[in-house]
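call fold(seq) -> tokens
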Amino acid sequence: MKILPLGLSLAALLAMSGTAFAQSADLSEPLSPKDVHWSFEGPLGMYDRAQLQRGFQVYKEVCSACHSLTRVSFHDLSYDNGGSGMFSDAQVKAIAASYKLPAEPNDKGETVDASGQPLMRPGIPADHFPPPFANEEAARASNGGALPPDQSLIVKARDGGAQYIYSVVTGDGAHAPAGFKVMDNKYYDPYFAGRNISMPPPLNDDSVTYSDGTKATKDQEARDVVAFLSWAGEPKLEERHQLGFGVMAFMILLSGMLYLSYRKLWKDQH
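ret:
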């Protein structure tokens, strides 16, 4: 048996212990978000309207069953009259009307019908998206005690932004590595803090049938809905980018004019 020097043995032992500790810690620490390119990134980034339409479809048909979008109104979806949305006014009216919202008291002052159900009315463009649950208690009761977060600002509110949300959505339900304990009523997600997430895997291939004929793979659905949620959190992004570009162009022009003025005023002073 080969005997290693004491110092080397201790160093090797510490190295192995450190590696084991790091591996153990890695099982609970979330992975860094995936590096995904988005059309709206960068100083000249712009939203892809077709992608936003598909993303809205994914939100409406999949995500809205649990997640609210209460800071967004239906008319925000319009691109008419200089709007920053992805649908025409006529389309927005149809989308709004497909939702039912609590009605005002009728001419008799009633707010419920003969069977005791609340009176409802079709939505109009001025309305905000109605939440899927009546209150927080109802939301928790339907989700095993967990409260699904509102998605209006979720991309801006989470560190890592769109890359993080995309990573969580696509990582949810992944196979847990050996030695990792998935808690009861939880799902493994390597990109979520603690790697235990309450949300069931939200997307699968063909979760929706895209109206534009795009193949609805899980990755495509995730990209589209994250783009839509990015828009929901910052619908004026393109206007901000255009304004910033205009300011930069003006500053460059002004700098050039100041430099030429300087040369003209001081050329005879030397």
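Residues 16-24 have pLDDT under 50 and may be disordered.
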